[in-house]
Amino acid sequence: MSFHEVRFPAALSFGSLGGPERRTEVVTLANGFEERNTPWAHSRRRYDAGFGLRSQDDVSEMISFFEARQGQLHAFRWKDWSDYKSSTATAEVNFEDQLIGTGDGVESSFQITKTYASGGTSYVRPITKPVDGTVTVGLDGLVTVEGFDWTIDLTTGIVTFLTPPAPGISVSAGFEFDVPVRFDTDVIQTGVASFQAGEVPNVPVVEVRI
After folding, report:
1. Cβ-Cβ contacts under 8 Å for 44 (sequence gap 6 or more)
2. DSSP string covering 127-143, please?
3. Is 28 helix (H, G, I), strand (E, B) or coil?
4. What is the tens place of the pLDDT at every residue in 13-36?
5. Distance between CA atoms of 88 and 91, rounded to whole angstroms?
6. Which residues pair with 45 in a beta bridge?
7. Strand partners, 26
8. pLDDT digits over 66-95, tens only?
9. Cα-based distances in Å from 161 to 39, 126, 153
10. Dist CA 95 CA 60 (whole Å)
């Protein structure tokens, strides 16, 4: 799969509709009870970029982006305005936001993740597209220095320490992130008359696995 390390214009994704999708297989037994299973370890996001378009200039910019990606062919970055950082929606990003691992004295690379917890259960989401300049990392509650203590691969979301953290040392991180997506169509249909009449073009976008 070809991935373009470019973000869909954030001003156009603002106002779009979308969110996480799960796949659950439900089997109803003869006694009326259910068995529920899922083939997916991770959720997948879907969006409709059409709802973020407010003018003909927006439509023109979106079509240029679509053509440069050649429709569904090349994936790209997407800012999900409802969920784009390690902290809560109204808080500032902090290096203690997310626990991403524990040192063992050997491992030096850690995937940044975001944990969603509720009711005693949690889901750990791998973050593969952090935003440049937003990542901060800590060891046992102390902030560390990028370039001196660690580096970040912005294409994978992997933090690599120059010296492996000692056994038992907690590794935490704070960051903003994008979602890797592609267009879920090879056809974009819109027109000046329909747009002025308030009709929103359908521009489906779907998350891809990296």
Report:
1. 20, 21, 206, 207
2. ---BPTT--EEEETTEE
3. strand
4. 998 899 999 999 999 999 999 999
5. 5
6. 20
7. 36
8. 999 999 999 999 999 999 999 999 999 999
9. 34, 18, 12
10. 39
